[in-house]
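agent> fetching stored inputs for the tryptophan docking request
agent> found them:
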Amino acid sequence: MLDGRVFSGVQPTGNLHLGNYLGAIKNWVGLQKDHETIYCIVDLHAITVPQEPTSLSTATHEVAACLIASGIDVNNSILFNQSQVPQHAELAWLFNCVARLGWLNRMTQFKEKAGKNRENATVGLYAYPTLMAADILAYKATYVPVGEDQKQHLELTRDIAIAFNSMFGENFFPIPDPIIQKTAARIMSLRDGTSKMSKSSASDFTRINLNDDDDLIAQKIKKAKTDSEPLPDNVRELEERPEARNLVGIYAALTNQTEGDVVSEFSGEGFGKFKPMLAECLINTISPIRNEMNIILSDTVELDRFLAEGSKRAQSIAEPVLAACKSVMGFVQSSN
Ligand code: TRP
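agent> prediction call returned; pasting tokens
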């Protein structure tokens, strides 16, 4: 067990896909081996944009089931949903009074999500990063596995921790470090190697969903866009071939190899040979997760028990941290 504590969060969104699995979930599973790990389904972040109540609970269950099916061990890691631990929202308020408008105004995710109609964005969407800082710092987490797109939010978390420490007590919060996923291969659309695989793309053939059946996975790979060249013997030659590169990257991530290993294995081969091998790998990875997910989702009472248990364990860490924060800030509190 290494020093430090890992914390990460995932939004409860329906339709988890291969990009979510290879980009985050697989890494989370691996981190359990030698770290204390806390994983949170961030339902309070989800409502920064309008959510249908029934879809919110369904998506929360789906993400929880997917994490467990993928290998998050609830007896070891703490797995819970954010709204069951009130300390997140309370600490976020304290941080709203530490963070500055100028800091939040720089956040590119807000600009992107709010779009042109900024006046109509929720206040919650604007304050999203202070809640994220609260998620992390409520556990005094030191490592935060995130995708490239969340680096700026982590920087803000560090700024909040530094500001809080300088106002209220040196070394109160540790300054957390990001862990940017090692499988650097971003998983791209199967139809356009220059845009990210996404649940919101109109065509389902751009992505592999974690609940696709085996035949559909094979079909999607068969129809994935490629070019007519064989695979080269070095990665550099893939640079101008985004679709080919994406498939090589997926194969490498699935088999825990580098892209270099993969091209040297398949050098000179065409996609007629490579694609069926890739489909087989995908099916070997996804079908057990899909099957396990369905079993877990058939008993949501049991699943809710896991989440309640995780929330209790989370709260036992977050509550004293929040109480200590309030104490150094000068709030009068009852002592028990
Ligand atoms: N904002 C993150 C995302 O969309 C999710 C998240 C919320 C998170 N709180 C977090 C990630 C704390 C890491 C740590 O991906």
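agent> quick read of the result: Residues 204-295 form a domain with the Tyrosyl-Transfer RNA Synthetase fold (CATH 1.10.240.10).
agent> awaiting further instructions
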